[in-house]
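# step 3/5: fold
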Amino acid sequence: MSHVNTIYNQLLQLLPRHEFEKGVILHKGDKYVKYFTCWQQFITLLYAQIRKKDSLRDIITSLCVQYKRWYHIGLKKICRSTLSDANNNRSYQIFERLFYKLLERCKTITPRHKFRFKNPLHTIDATTIELCLSIFPWAKYRKTKGAMKLHFLYDHKGCLPSFIVMTEGRCCDITVVKEKDFSSRLLPDSIISIDRAYIDLKWLQSLTKKRIYYVTRLKKNMKFVVLGQHTVSKNKNVIRDELICFIQAIQSGACRDTFRLITYYDPDTKKTLQFLTNNFTLSPVTIAAIYKSRWQIELFFKWIKQHLKIKSFLGTSKNALLTQIWVAMCYYLLLTYIKYQTKFKYPLIELARIFREILLERISLIDILSLNKNNLSKLQLLDNPQLEFF
């Protein structure tokens, strides 16, 4: 088995390399480059993500210790200043393009969402990454604070981020969604769950025209007129299911649509909630469950902040920061792709921990994924038959 490549080399082979090179040519990433190409930059940054390295010096030192295994991954030479210059000057769009090409592969193997209906289900939300304003002066948020905001279109089919927009922290959520036209990424009959920050009646009206359904919470200051009862539910937690229209929208002529308002008692939180939607087919209980499923994107935000290197950065320029985030999201998709393709039954974090420990070891990837965490210790490394895991 001496011909087996390192785990890292096997991971890199899962990436669409030809599409990556197309992006390099498109954005002229390797123009005037002598040896440290865009691909070498990518494998260096991906290595830092997997091993959770905090600084350029940490990356260089770690790689130099493993220089005898560079040939397995195609790395030729590495220098801290060269890596820093590459992060600052090479377009982050090269790695953004790779993310969406990898996303196309992931979507072909991901399982469907847990609901019975066949409509695609998504959530739109944003999360903020706090930055030091003196170090990142371009990321203005408040007078003394800096921040960057990541806006996600989250696909519940496979728990995938299907569209990402990165802006300064002060950008308004609904403004970004309208300017970047998130709805163009959705198929007709799709359902999206959104929080109250995205309530804009004109935008909601445009979703209805595109046959896109939404589920959100009603704002407390929104005045409406009840047009009638929609249905009478036998579920005791459904208090009311009504048809309404908004007074201010009718007076201004901004929106004359009829909305469905569901008043629901949540037995888990002991609270009475009001859900606003343009879907008149699904049951009130299903509508409430759809909004509750929006919590999945909050768990996703928590996961990427805890397990990906997107809170401490290797550079201070906007391009360096965006490059690091896009590489991190590529790694998330790579983990997801392996999990679903191999039917790995353990959580994604277990997969990430295994890769972090054995990244440059010469072991078959399939052998690793076919084991479980209780018998990993029985697997021996090829380079040292006496060395065992954990």
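# step 4/5: annotate
The beta strands are 121-131, 146-155, 160-168, 191-193, 213-217, 224-229, 238-246, 259-266, 271-277.
# step 5/5: archive (pending)
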